[in-house]
Amino acid sequence: MVVLSLSRLHLQYKPRPMQCVWRVSWLFRQHMLSPHPTSSIFPPISKSFNFDLPISDPESHLFKSSETDSIVAGFVLFFPNYSTFLAKPGFYIEDLFVRECYRSKGFGKMLVAAVAAQAAKMGYGRVEWVVLDWNVKAIKFYEEMGAQIMKDWKICRLSGHALQAYYANAA
């Protein structure tokens, strides 16, 4: 997971138990606002930002780390996957989020760039994610960074009752 704060950007991948995925907000608040052990594979990436005008962030107290005095502006949650088409591993971005008051300032691009840089450094074949077709701003953002929107692909999903029913019928 990569978390962007006003005083630092951390790129860190650690396998997490599935129950943590169910509570992303808890993981985000509890884990990402706490100090991180560094790793030789995923060292922290530090960036400093100077803005001409202060950013109005009425919720800054909810996203402030007491240890570092930094404010979390956004995060990207990603994990490794494998492409049989490329015969190479890659990263899948599950979620990219930049808080509203920090959008259009380059933070989203920086978060995706951190994942892409790690994938390239590791010799991975690609980074991929999905975007809702109605999210025109996001689609434009991704196309401007060079991402290819795969119009011929559709997402398939088994969840909830359908997943349970399929499991019951397949057994």
UniProtKB/TrEMBL annotation:
UniProt entry tagged with the keyword Transferase: yes
Entries under Pfam families matching the protein: Acetyltransf_1
Alphabetical keyword list: Acyltransferase, Transferase
Protein name from the UniProt record: N-acetyltransferase domain-containing protein
GO MF term set: N-acetyltransferase activity
Superkingdom of the organism of origin: Eukaryota
Domain N-acetyltransferase: 13-171
Annotated source species: Camellia sinensis var. sinensis
